[in-house]
Amino acid sequence: MDLTYLDWPFFEGSHRVLAPSVAGWRDGDLQLEPDEDPGAACRSYVEQLGRAGWLAYTVPSAFGGATEPLDVRSICLIRETLGYVSGLAEFAFAMQGLGSGPISFFGSDALRARYLPEVAAGRLIAAFAISEDVAGSDLGAMQTTARRDGSDIVIDGRKTWISNAGIAGFYIVFCRWPEGGDRSYIALLVEADAPGLTVDANLDVMAPHPLGTLTFDGCRVPDTAIVGRPGKGMSVALGTLDVFRTTVGGAALGLARRALDEAASHVKTRVAFGKPLADFQLTQARIADMATAIDASALLVYRAAWLRDRGAPRITREAAMAKLVATESAQQVIDGAVQLLGARGVLHGATVERLYREIRALRIYEGTSEIQKIIIAGQVLAAAGDVRRENQ
Fold first, then answer.
1. Residues 186, 112 within the same domain
2. Per the domain annotation, does 388 fall within a domain?
3. Which residues span the domain enclosing 183?
């Protein structure tokens, strides 16, 4: 895996040390797990990542983390480095950050002190529960509700497509909050053993990872479980996604870099019509397109991460661009690798075949490519309106 891009001005000395350190641990100490039981595999990865100290990058330093505030470039680099060898190991790392992100950014000090050190140590698995059967991209369509009952909050409804369902120690659950009006939402921390919560880890997808459905039937949590302010749950969700959406691009980079390396190695040794595939101009053109797509994606990913780390309050436009281009480009790069490997590329168990399955979901979760385009256009048009008003 080529790390020369660490010389780019987006990075600091700590990043130039971090990436090779993670890569060295990955190649020497990470125990890769079979994906037949993705729940067990993820538990193992979380434990390994916690022992090695890498999960410390998913929480603030005041609560057992590595940096204050979270360093998005570091999270991207770790996702990229882990994704190079295992989409499931990368997923396990990422979900510790996404699942606990609402607590890191919006939670009370009591919630932070109780949960974040456990997340960083790998002793507690986190989950982010926002999607529903009719509320994926359209978050405003969610139907799960929460209401006050004395000093408790009572939740009713159903969440699905929830990553880490069945293995998480807690879920950050987003609900409608009628008390605040029609467009009011609330974020709540729900422990896995909360009364009234049923978890069904029943969803089997093309690139296995723990995924399932949460059903809330009069599920009770104390009002101390509120993350952020009542009525501002959507701000909690979008503020968290604004950070971690960029890091999805980092994961896509790891998959794409592995695909390019696999393809380049293959075409230099595979002989056809009396010469290596690498000698054919069509092969060279495809390799050039793949390498260029990766570098263009990396520039967008690390620009967005750099802006956030420099203190930009929101990076909505830049994060959407990073996720869109990195995931779409990675799909094209991996497809190109499959094509160059020919029959070997579609053989079940081949590296590029695994990558082909793993990349597909990244173009959907945390906002589909189509949603990213809507976000980008909205940001551009809003800025154009501001400029027009200034010039009038």
1. no
2. no
3. 128-231
* Domain count within the chain: 3
Whole-number average pLDDT of the chain: 95
Predicted TM-score of the model (pTM)? 0.94
Helix (H) or strand (E) holding 149: strand 145-149
Residue 139 pLDDT grade (very low, low, confident, very high; cuts 50, 70, 90) = confident
> CA 28, 33, 38, 42 torsion: positive or negative?
negative
pLDDT per residue over 336-385, tens digit each?
999 999 999 999 999 999 999 999 999 998 899 999 999 999 999 998 87
DSSP 232: B
38 & 119 share domain: yes
105 and 13 belong to one structural domain: yes
Q: Are residues 283 and 196 in the same domain?
A: no
Given the residues 262, 366, 370, 390, the one annotated as active site: 366
- The residues near 103 (Cβ < 8 Å, ≥ 6 apart) are 111, 112, 115, 116, 172, 189, 227
State yes or no: is 366 an active-site residue: yes
- Indicate the angle between helix axes 316-341 and 369-391, nearest 10 degrees: 140
- Count of C-beta atoms within a 10 Å radius of residue 351: 17
